[in-house]
């Protein structure tokens, strides 16, 4: 179990969470420092402590790399994907929340619900929801979702 944040740590954590929810990205250390009228090194120490306590994640060497551990990103569940026979795509996609730790910040992502067991050897079974990064190319060894000429997945 993680130690509770101190009152000042909680204020900073609340600011980061609120900023993230409003903009979809984290504040910079300078923005946090300005908001709390503290120095950047002081805020950096607060962030490191919150990270050690498990309240934040941080991608090193990434601008705005502070990640609230409860942060999510909305992507669309576009329908079902056949792990076997082709199926028709979903007509009305629904948004779902995905933990930000599951996907990098850059890229266009969507989700599909698996129907069938042809990918069971790769740990993908009937009923799983898989996260897909949209891209037009693949390299040898990638697992891909391909759309056929009839628009079927």
Show the helix and strand layout.
Blueprint: H1 7-23, H2 29-36, H3 40-52, E1 56-58, E2 66-68, E3 72-82, E4 94-99, E5 109-115, E6 129-133
Parallel strand pairs: 3-5
Antiparallel strand pairs: 1-2, 3-4, 5-6
Helix pairs in contact: 2-3
How would you describe this protein?
The chain has helices at 7-23, 29-36, 40-52; strands at 56-58, 66-68, 72-82, 94-99, 109-115, 129-133. Strand 1 (56-58) and strand 2 form a beta hairpin. By secondary structure, the protein is of the alpha+beta class. It folds into two domains: 7-68, Winged helix-like DNA-binding domain superfamily/Winged helix DNA-binding domain (Arc Repressor Mutant, subunit A, Orthogonal Bundle), CATH 1.10.10; 72-133, no CATH class. A four-stranded mixed sheet has the order 4-3-5-6, with no helix packed on it. A two-stranded antiparallel ribbon has the order 1-2. It contains three helices and six strands. The protein is elongated, with a radius of gyration of 20 Å.
């Amino acid at each position: 179990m993680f130690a509770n944040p101190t009152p000042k740590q909680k204020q900073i954590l609340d600011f980061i969470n609120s900023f993230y929810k409003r903009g979809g990205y984290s504040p910079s250390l300078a923005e946090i420092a300005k908001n709390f009228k503290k120095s950047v090194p002081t805020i950096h120490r607060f962030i490191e402590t919150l990270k050690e306590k498990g309240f934040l994640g941080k991608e090193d060497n990434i601008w705005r790399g502070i990640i609230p551990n409860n942060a999510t990103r909305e992507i669309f569940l576009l329908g079902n994907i056949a792990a076997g026979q082709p199926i028709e795509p979903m007509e009305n996609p629904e948004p779902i929340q995905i933990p930000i730790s599951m996907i990098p910040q850059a890229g266009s992502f969507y989700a599909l619900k698996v129907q069938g067991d042809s990918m069971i050897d790769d740990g993908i079974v009937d009923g799983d929801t898989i996260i897909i990064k949209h891209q037009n190319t693949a390299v040898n060894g990638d697992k891909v979702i391909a759309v056929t000429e009839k628009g079927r997945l």
